[in-house]
Amino acid sequence: MKILILTPRIPYPLRDGGAIAMNQTLEGYIEQGCEVSLLSMNTSRHWVEENDLPNMYTQLKHFESVFVNNSINPFSAFFNLFSDKSYNVARFINKNFEQALIRLLQKEEFDIIQFESIYTSPYLAIAKKHSDAKCYCRVHNIEHLIWQRLAEHEPSFLKKKYLTLLTSRLKNYELDILRKFDLLLPISQKEELFFTEQQINTCYLLPFGVNDNKILPEFECESTSCYHIGSMDWAPNIEGVEWFLEEVWKKASIDLPNIHFYIAGKNMPAAFMAKEDKQIHVVGEVNDFIQFSLQKNIMIVPLQSGAGIRIKILEAMELGKTIISTSIGSEGIGATHNENILIADTPEEFIKCLEMCFHQPAEAKLIGDNARKFVSSHFHKKQIYQSAIEQYKTLNNTP
Hints:
This protein has helices spanning 17-31, 74-80, 87-90, 95-107, 124-130, 143-153, 157-178, 189-197, 235-255, 270-273, 289-295, 311-318, 347-359, 361-378, 381-396, and strands at 2-7, 35-43, 62-68, 112-116, 134-139, 183-186, 225-229, 260-264, 280-284, 298-301, 322-325, 342-343. It is α/β, with parallel strands linked by helices.
């Protein structure tokens, strides 16, 4: 099966959930014997030097990247107010990328063209015009829900007004464009349920997968630690960590004076750097998620907004980590409170969970052990992609 994948960024380095999920799709299809081509935007916000790409890219039938300046421009954002178009999506429209896609489709034939997120969807009409391939969209998030939740939590009246406008336009675009694909590939049951509610029935669940019975390297774990890791230029992560520090940590650090909280992630805002003290440690970007996580104890996911599935939670579960998350943070995973994850939505619940983890370490470790068993059973990578290719062949009438 010949598959072309379009991505709104080069899915490397593997330091955030979006890159990790897109990279796994490439790996999963290649491992199933598919002939995979990749056309990526190399954006100003996530610029990657192609010489640094791993060997997997040599296994691609065709790889090309096109520079796209998707930086937020105040002038463009202002003039966009006088249109009815989504500024979120408009930043990914690029003539050079369009021409590169046309050239590739004129040269090669594909069974499937997979669009990674709605930010590649402006090129759907071009793909349909120049190819007979089935057009699938991998849905990582219901994007307008992220902005809707951000707007709901925004205290500034003017900013709330602007975010509400962005949300409305993005929602209109998203619901319209998703109906035009031949198949949607939601990454979690949360997105799948949303499509059912919207009476969009052409979807197939393609979740993130883990490697069964992965042998973990051994690192000494700092038992008195908890940590958060995620892209710190993503508004829901910033909002969540601010909430945790203000509403939870101020009291928890007094009740647990020997506990340390580590904040890790790329593009760390200066405001967090200023919060460092004897118990708060701002690490910034880490090169190895596995090593960093295994050296720390309890994972904190304090999301108040956002949508989609948290890849970092699944990865941490694969490592056997005990995780305290809000309900929003754990959406789409299907984990069970007090069995394989701890769910806390209020400061009081978070503090109670933290105290349990550090006062009853054996019980906390059991939750982490159960988490590893859970993802091995429900998110097995090889089985996920075997089943996906079988389904695609049935839908495409491909032998």
